[in-house]
Amino acid sequence: MEAEKAKTEHTFEKVARDWHTSRLPEWQPVTARNTLNRLELDIFPVLGNQPIADITHQQIIDVLKTIEARAAETARRLKSTLGRIFSYAVQRGIIKHNPIPDLIDVLNKVNKQHFAAIKPEELPAFLKALDGNRERLFIPTRIAVNLMMLTFVRTSELIEAEWSEIDLDNGIWIIPWQRMKMGRRKINPDTTDHRIDLPKQAIELLNELKTITGNSRYLFPGQRDHSKHMSNNTILMALKRMGYKGKMTGHGFRTLAASALEEIGYRREVIDRQLAHKERNKIQAAYFRAEFIKERKELLQAWADYIDSLRTGKVIPIRGQAA
């Protein structure tokens, strides 16, 4: 009887509003307002009065597809929001399972740029190919591909990296703003350095790399001229050797990580900040820099652990944020 009463009390709208309230201290007012407005407009009228424990996959699919027919980007954002609400409910013992990660392909992909990238479900095969070509790849090149996968930085940010930027003792990589995409603009450049809290797997790779290139200026010096950094084409050639020509690019690691992490419930704002995407205004930029360091560090380590689990075959789910 008590269980049935609790179930009835935990309607989707009640749980969603509780989740929303819990996030207010960390959100800008505009984020809080927009998030609630989207829920009130598109989700609450359909699912709001229903016990959250009774909501089915098909109901979620139906509501998302209805929204997608009108506004694909809104549907994508709401799917991410739903994932965080259900994650919140799981962590509080209201439900046992978050249904959103089961719905990876329910919405059509929105491709803003045409960089070849594998899908999250293709990652195990990619890892098998990468590890299977271990002896064929120049050691620094193999490490470079793995680091791109773990940190999802831009190709130029990786191949131009200098040892002076890396603090291995504290596990931090600071990319100077002058090397960042937005810092290179001639008009109104973004003068913010980009911080990467390295997962332990990346630190291990860098320690291995340091025994090979530690005396050079660059992490990845050119094979013929050590005073220059690795060529832009090196990553593409390695992917070609692995059998991924036309299927994967350096930029594809960014697409892959962003897609997988958002699917399991990490906040888009946190993912975008780790990707060093441009913030829309100075206030938002300052907010992102101030608030997301801890979340970004956890995100990078969770992603690295997930990749490790795919390699061993003992897959551990990435624990998305209830945020």
Helix-strand topology string: HHHHHHHHEEEHHHHHH
Radius of gyration: 21 Å
The strand count comes to 3
Low-confidence stretches: none
CATH superfamily of the largest domain: Intergrase catalytic core
Helix content: 40-55%
Structural class: mainly alpha
Fold-level CATH name of the largest domain: hpI Integrase, Chain A
Strand residue percentage = under 5%
CATH architect. name of the largest domain: Orthogonal Bundle
* Number of discrete helical segments: 14
Cα(first) to Cα(last) distance is 31 Å
Q: Note the overall shape.
A: elongated
Quickly describe the structure.
It is built from 14 helices and 3 strands.
Characterization of this structure:
Keywords: DNA integration, DNA recombination, DNA-binding. Belongs to the 'phage' integrase family. Residues 113-301 form the Tyr recombinase domain. It holds the Pfam family Phage_int_M. GO terms for molecular function: DNA binding. It is a single chain. With 323 residues, this protein is mainly α. It folds into two domains: 2-103, Tyrosine recombinase, N-terminal domain (DNA polymerase, domain 1); 120-312, Orthogonal Bundle (hpI Integrase, Chain A). It is built from 14 helices and three strands. The protein has helices at residues 2-9, 12-23, 29-47, 57-70, 72-91, 123-132, 139-151, 155-159, 200-213, 233-241, 252-263, 268-274, 282-291, 293-312, and strands spanning 166-167, 172-175, 194-197. A three-stranded antiparallel β-sheet has the order 1-2-3. Helix 2 (12-23) packs antiparallel against helix 3 (29-47) and helix 7 runs antiparallel to helix 9 (200-213). The chain starts with a helix and ends in an 11-residue tail after the last helix. 32% of the residues are buried.
